[in-house]
Amino acid sequence: MSDRAPQPVERQLPTEEARDLLAxxxxxxxxxxxxxxxxxxxxxxxxxxxxxxxxxxGLLGLPYPAEYGGGDQPYEVYLQVLEELAAARLTVGLxxxxxxxxSYALATYGSKQQQVEHLPAMLSGGLLGxxxxxxxxxxxxxxxxxxxAVREGDTWVIDGSKAWITHGxxxxxxxxxxxxxxxxxxxxxxxxxxxxxxxxxxxAPERKMGLKGSPTAQVHFDGVRVPDGRRIGEEGQGFxxxxxxxxxxxxxxxxxxxxxAQAALDEAVRxxxxxxxxGRPIADFQGLRFMLADMATQIExxxxxxLAAARLxxxxxxxxKQAAMAKLHCTDTAMKVTTDAVQILGxxxxxxxxxxxxxxxxxKVLQIVEGTNQIQRMVIARHVAGPEDR
Length: 390
Prior knowledge:
Blueprint: H1 16-43, H2 48-56, H3 75-88, H4 90-109, H5 112-124, E1 129-132, E2 148-152, E3 155-166, E4 173-179, E5 188-194, E6 200-202, E7 216-227, E8 231-232, H6 238-274, E9 276-277, E10 280-281, H7 286-314, H8 320-345, H9 356-366, H10 373-385
Parallel strand pairs: 1-4
Antiparallel strand pairs: 2-3, 3-7, 4-5, 5-8, 6-7, 9-10
Helix pairs in contact: 1-3, 3-4, 3-6, 3-7, 4-5, 4-6, 6-7, 6-8, 6-9, 7-8, 8-9, 8-10
């Protein structure tokens, strides 16, 4: 039966160093992450020790410069690392993606002094980040955010609340978008806020359908004082920084979605080979074989799409349309593939004794985070047909 077992993903990697890196990631995933995933997700436990290990292994700053503790890896490689981590446990893959998103503003728009002072600890010093854009009353319409930062000399005082924050309440630093000027996108500025700043607090985590090991919570700012030296970019530049970060972050979500879908396909293949009905494996029945073929095809298409977008990014070319396409296609694929995996497992798929039901619950959130898939369609349509006629 070994010749009919799930086959490893065939990866196209640009260097021998990248191949060694992926081998290291697989080893960590198989040894430290996957064995505990089901139990810890069921208990709602966040694996902070795994992130400490990933930081020590150089895996929390892969796409950023080595001079600041990063890995100097292209997005083409970084995203495949995310895929492997997410296949072992989505909480970990998504957590690395969010940490990378939270580090983006300083790594890309920060001054040299800010980067020297803060990036080494953020990328390889064991810290964990969170990205604060959404609010209770502004999700998809992020430009209407109401959290305010008022300048008092060389200090900014931040008041307001952020919502749906991955790592909210447990992060070591927060990249925060706050209103410093007029209404709309031009009045928003970005700040790097340490978690131990007086007046900053995290609410109780949301009670979610899936991804229970990854805390999602509101974060409150009650007179939080931040020196101007922690302002990232120019005043009023925060919204453009946020959108730029999200273009890259959407690729991270796409890669995580493919990893989750691959895990679901592998589980379905294993079950279909082992489960016998009417005297033979159910994998021999055409109805199921066609389902597995469709699942594998959509996963491969998603992988190709996110890698094509990553290669555009690595080449310094525009990739916003392709990032939105990748996020849309890959997360819709994850939802379809995980649902089909449950169907292939039948009654067992609906029980917590197998991971398929957890994969299905986790896939749903990927269609929502970092821009709902309806927003992705709006972004794509603007590139294809131009802006809406208002």
